[in-house]
Amino acid sequence: MKNWLVAAVASGCLGIGCSVPETTPFTLERFCQGGGSQTMEGLLRVDPSACDRGLELIVQPKGFNPGCIRVALWTKDGSGAASTVLLRDPQTSGGAEFHAVALLSDALRAELRLEVDAFAQDCDTAPVTSQAFIVAQPEKGQIAQSLIELSALDADGDGFFSKDTGGTDCDDSNFSIKDKIAWYPDMDGDGYGSSSSTVPVARACSGPSQTANNNKDCNDNAPLVWPGQAEVRCDGRDDNCDGRVDEAFNVGTFCWLPQGKWGVSACDPVNPARALCTSR
Question: What's 28's DSSP letter?
Fold first, then answer.
């Protein structure tokens, strides 16, 4: 996975993760009450019993529309850890900023480490890009604001990152082609993958050897059996995966023998293209 540019920019401040105290119109009281300059999509309350200082975190995607941003804050020794998840629909977000607030106690003066992870669709998969850095500590009664810019590649804007940069988009120039697709074993090579629920499934842009991009084959050991084909053989099996056997030959139905009595239609053991009227 390639590393993409992650930069934090704040007014009057250069360097990753730096913060600037804000006074007007940001007030600590508004943040402690869940308010602020923007609609906050996430809250990291490091100390549930205190709200002495605050960090306003603004995550700005560049070149992509993530479906999920995860923000975590912790100290070097692991104390004071908190995290939040910011969710969006990548098809409609238009690259808008994500907003979160971290509320801190004045007693927590250890070095604070911030990690921001970006995900293509949701937070249940591995992040496409991640970055961690140290943030500046605001003074008591102050709010520090940080703008974090994250850049990644989603050229067609479908919400999936290019596979060339660690994502899963099989063609980042085609909006209709998105995530890797499922490939099912096709051991008999008839173009239809096994319908068994126990077979291994591969997810890839192009199929590995002896696989198909569907799971419709009811018998993956018979190359002449696949869905939708004509039932042209009277062979005692379901040749077209419709759940019926030899339905075109009326097997098992009554027929009239030359001897002038009733018989039963059955497959011809010599010629599978026909059925015979046999004695009951």
Answer: H
Strand, helix or coil at 12?
A: coil
Structure tokens at 52: 């002495």
CB 58 within 8 A of CB 37: no
Q: Break the chain into its structural domains and give their ranges.
A: 6-151, 180-227, 233-280
Task: For 210-235, write each residue's pLDDT tens digit.
Answer: 999 999 999 999 998 999 888 888 98
Answer yes or no: are the C-beta atoms of 122 and 68 closer than 8 Å: yes
- pLDDT tens string 69-84: 999 988 877 777 888 8
**What is the greatest pairwise CA distance in the chain?**
107
Cα 151 to Cα 95: distance, rounded to the nearest angstrom: 11
The C-alpha angle with vertex 119 and arms to 65 and 178, in degrees rounded to 5, equals 65
Element holding 211 (H helix, E strand): strand 211-212
Q: Which of 72, 147, 75, 58 is closest to 112 using CA atoms?
A: 75
Mapped onto helix, strand or coil, the DSSP state of residue 248 is: helix
Nearest alpha-carbon partner for 239 in 175, 198, 190, 169: 190
For residue 38, name the pLDDT band (cuts at 50, 70, 90): low
The whole-angstrom separation of Cα 32 and Cα 34 is 5
Q: How far apart are the first and last CA of the chain?
A: 70
Assess contact for 275 and 267: CB atoms under 8 A: yes
pTM above 0.70, yes or no: no
CA 134 to chain centre: 30
The model's pLDDT over 82-109, given as tens digits with 9 standing for 90+, comes to 888 888 877 776 778 888 888 888 888 8
Three-state DSSP at 243 gives coil
Cα dihedral sign, 88-90-91-95 = positive
From CA 201, how far away is CA 163, in angstroms rounded?
19
